[in-house]
Write a structure and sequence with these properties.
By secondary structure, the protein is mostly helical. It has a domain of about 30 residues. It is about 35% helix and about 0% strand. The chain is built from 1 helix and no strands.
Amino acid sequence: MANTSQLSKDERKKSKRASRKKSKAEKPKKPRDYARGSKKPKVKKLIRGQAKR
């Protein structure tokens, strides 16, 4: 992506959106082979008043 520090806010936004769209078209991500959130660590419910994490 080009240097956007000299552009106005709207121009910067347009530029970033365009580059995101371009990269998505060039390098599509492969679909997930597992359920979303299934790899999150499960937290056992603790007694009220104790910190969970």
